[in-house]
Amino acid sequence: MGVHEIEDAKLIFNFGYNGADSHPIVQRRIVRAKQKGATIICADPRVTEAARIADVHLQLKGGTNIALVNAMCNVIYNEGLVDQHFIDTMSVDYDAFVEIIKKYTPEYAETICKVPAELIRKAARMYAKAPSAMILYGMGVCQFGQAVDVVKALGSLALMTGNYGKPASGIGPVRGQNNVQGACDMGALPNNYPGYQNVTNPDVQAKFEKAWGVKLSNKVGVPLTHVPQRVLEEKDPAKKLHAYYIFGEDPAQSDPDVAEIRETLEKLDFVIVQDIFMNKTAEFADVILPSTSWNEHDGVYSCCDRGFQRIRKVVEPPSTVKTDWEIICEISTAMGYKMKYKNTEEIWNELIDLCPNFAGATYEKIEKYGCIQWPCRSKDMNDKGTVFLHNGKFATADGKGKFYTAEWRPPQELENEEYPLSFSTVREVGHYSVRTMTGNCRMLRNLEDEPGWIQMNPADCEKLHIKHGDLVKVMNKRGWCITRCNATERVAKGATYMTYQWWIGCCNELTIGSNLDPVSNTPEYKYCNCRVEKIDDQAAAWDYVNNEYKDLRSRMGIKMIGEEA
Amino acid sequence: MRKFVKGNPDLCIGCRTCMIGCVVEHEGRRIFEIDPDGYDFNPRLHMVKTAKISVPVQCKHCENPACMAACPVNCIKVINDAVVIDTDSCIGCKSCVQACPFGAIDMVSKIGTQQADGSMRVVANKCDLCVGTGNGPACVRVCPTSALTLVDEEKLKEVVCDKRVATANAAKVFADAKEVE
Amino acid sequence: MTNKYSCYVLADPNKCTGCKACELACFAEHNKSNNGVGYTVGTVTIPVTPKLYLTKTKAYCMPIQCRHCEDAPCLNACQKHAIYRENSQVIVDQEKCIGCKDCVLACPFGAIAILPIGEKGKLKLQKDREVVKVASKCDLCKDIEGGPACVRVCPNDALELVDANADIEAKNIKTAEGLYVSRI
Amino acid sequence: MRVVEIDKNICTGCRECAKVCPAYAIEGEQGEPQTINTDKCVMCGQCVQKCKSYVSIVTHGYEAYDKVRKERGIPESVKEPLFAAHNVTHIDEVKKALADPTKVVMASAAPAVRTGLAEEFGYKLGTLSNGKMAAAFRALGFDYIYDVNFAADLTIMEEGSELIERVTTGKGKLPMFTSCCPAWVTFLERNYPELSDHLSSCKSPQQMQGAVQKTYGAELRGLKKKDIFNVSVMPCTCKEFECSREEMNASGERDIDVVITTRELAWLIKDAGIDFKSLKEEEFDKPLGEFTGAGEIFGATGGVMEAALRTGYELITGKEIPDVKIPSVRGGEGFRTADIKVGDLTLKVGVVSGLKHVVQVLEDVKAGKLNHFHFIEVMTCPVGCVSGGGQPKLLMDTDKETAYYNRTHTTYKMDEELPIRKSHDNPSIKKIYKEFLKNPLGEKSHHLLHTHYVKGPAKTVK
Description:
The structure holds four protein chains of four kinds. Helices cover 33% and strands 16% of the residues of chain A. Chain A is an alpha/beta fold. Helices cover 30% and strands 22% of the residues of chain B. Chain B contains five helices and eight strands; from the N terminus they run E-H-E-E-H-E-E-H-E-E-H-E-H. The mean pLDDT of chain B is 87.
């Protein structure tokens, strides 16, 4: 399915996805769909913009996603709202799936999710009875210790109601960052070559060895989130990491438990940071390689809907700055493997010839059609790619959809007496990712600046004698930060939320790095505990914030208002 | 009738592009290139988010503006059918802020201007419908979800007339039924 | 006596010919004391500002006016508290009104218009000499002898003062009588 | 010529005007703008009185009013609502004449005007403003303030004599119809031309007034008649049409130069910035402004009849009439009849009020059913000239009854309060016959005060 289809959806099940803050442009399509009469079900612990306009808002407690999905499946199953023909002809493993969901009656789920059973029923009926229904999910699903299970369960929800292979149906991950999909497509994963070709597959290995003229490893690499463990805890010297080449990433800001990350970066023998602006991670770098930004080079991005899109250079970079691919070529060459390309098209052509699913996605075609959704296997101009991945049959080995769900597992770190509130990271519109880019935009910095906000229910604020706008100290056993209190009815009692772009109000001081999803290795950004403390001397706290910020910026060489660079 | 910009909470996604658009429009297009000290960041509309609502709030350009009536130095005027504050003559007394029932006016410091004691001047700030730019309100133009509408006499007439016709149609059904009785 | 529910005037599109006698009478009655409007047209010195609005569709027409809703959107929308309830009726305080048009947009019937008002036979002006314009809507001729002028002047008896209080009572009695007839 | 019109841009198509139009001249679909069929229209202006479809800031916008006002030639000082149905105004011509130093401008107002005029200045319905009106004319700069009431008395002299002649000599058709209402005359000419001999040959008071002002009046003051500009103020929209009939130039000039309505006189007064309320009462100029109660009651239905009977009685019997009040001919809309004993003679008279009621009467006359009637008064408007199309227009028709009653009441009250209540007792009437006209129905009278009728539409010079 394509992002544009959202507008034509009859029903949108918006699960753990806050488009208004993450991708306003996608949210626009959700709003349009609503205007055109779509029903919207929103599952989110907060009153997001999508929740606000939803017909049903399932305001579940954080970390209970799968219980809610199972319960909806339970209702659909028990009330006979399934698409039996679709299940019979198009799927496998239904019975095992049913065995698990049987237990998840809405009443049982209510005890876990804190969503009224009747509301779960209502949502389930709405979803099942819709002529076509589209599931959109985001980081509210993915950034948990139990994440892939939920994705599969949502997939099963769509499967049992036959919501595949037709317009505005199916299940769509609306990825965290632009070109996350592209990074995966290009093999920026520990286990894959480009085009999702596994490094352990000997045929694939042979193909790439032949193409590149070198021997290649058949061992799966280290996931990003395993880096601290491999540096700090690994005893096997063969497995221990010594060097870290980081580009387009700021783990010291964006990875969980940044205290641990800082320790990791310090312990490493050699750190290279390749980025467009200074960031916190670069402070630990032995070498900093400045590279061009998105408007200073050519390339291809993948949209979350598998669509390849061209990006083009519009600004000439400073003479001392090279593109990522040029830097890689030069380093590779310096290290003994002579790598030389004339331009990105040459790289792209090599890549698509090695990836059967991308083979037909030539520059020419992307240029002509604006976007090519893979799989696109033929260079023939008539192969315009694939809109529905699961069209007529599933893109699996047996052509069938596989039912799957799992029992609910609670998050690893729950609230307790010492840290009575739950803590989750979220996005805010206006500042992107780790804020190196948008923080340099004066306009956006004026709109919002350090030290960010912690969203809290007014009742919790009142208990702590904190007013909206007060600086507060947020802490748990891993760390603390200072931020401002945003008292808002949009969050439930007992839950707190911080956006992850603030350098001073840095939420990742608190997040937990150890509870990774076993499949995706994604950390549990969306759940840990915390305590919020009132700060009596607000003026001193502001001094602290301002000085820290000033200090950090001067270390990074960023010019402050009224200050020389 | 005076025009005004109206936000629609059903469409608004709370992104604040309108606020940025407002500042850019009022400070000139080269804002991204000029000295960071050289401009005011004073959006003339304010994003409000409550539990149920997200929508920017701004001046309604009332027909009989309470702010204008309250201003002791007559620095609030009607220009091209927009109620506009002349910030050069504003003395920052906040009477208008007090008078406005919508909270559409706030007080902002005006970069580059000084009082006798050297401190920055603080003046009343509110939507001026981008009067004089010739482009119409920037907030309306930049909103990604078209949540803002410039309501002019025509538009208001259209909305009200539609409602009146609907009312008449309903009354007709009622009257016909009564006749059958 | 205070009514439990508000009353309102409802027009019958099957009788209304669209002559605007109601609009003119409404204006005349409301401007007698303030603006010297007498019996004849020549005594009028300000634009005619009615509180009900003739609306024509292709097939029929009728004046649209305030229903004096029990949970009035206009009243709820007014930040100036210039719309209030008096003896169950919804009334605009034209002195307080600042002409923000919120009520106009809030009203689902189109019963409110922003119109100038007069004072001593001249259009009321603001400080800057601009004309004062306020929300204008039916007040059921609350201070006018003889009740709603529109009802009185309609040459076709197309307007009726609807009194839900009396209506419900009358219908209840009829229903009771029906129950008596159909008793088992 | 353009007299009464409906503005298509403003008309809502309610057809309330069609309900009051006595000539069935208003044509159009319900809900669509209406048009006036000028072949049928008698220009009575009842539609103008009825129309409530005003130029609205709500419907037509803020600019529309001024645009319409300008189009119609109405002075900027006028702020009152403007309606779809309206009469063509001639106020500009009056203003021009008043401003012209070479012109001697003479004013004369119809009896009913003074019963309505004050209403336009916020007075109670039917407030008499005889003296204030005279003062207003003077303040406006009119050179001579005469009065159509004078000519009404003159009409009685002529018409009474004509009636006596027809009754006693058998010369001329009976019943004789009054001819002072131009809408009625127009109606008869167009629709019953074969009955035009029944009309009195007398001109209307307006035209008699015009003719004597430019002849006798000129002589009296040593004026050239071409320098005289006669302005007639009428409660009637049709009078402008009447004065424009090509034959209305007995004096050698246009007898009446322009007619304005009561409402337009109010505009003139307001436009000149005259504070009507503070005006002191003033007298009319003599002799052409002197009148009796008989002249005044021309404004009400049955008034012409009553005035004629007061004089006719005394002319026929040579005795004083026992009671000048003849209530049996007074009344409201419809056709009323009465038998009046005049010496040995029993005069059979009828009064038609409201043109709609005249058709049956005319049909009956045609069929010979009313041969025993001597005299029938016909007035187009509901209760005579006080309810004329040019009178102050009511904002609310619920006030109509009161307005009609009060204006009529005022008319009769004025009659009662006047020292002289019979036309032939008017000293100025005696004077004009003595000095100028000699005898009723005489040669000068025949030339100046009598007219002839056409069969079909009359020709006009405007």
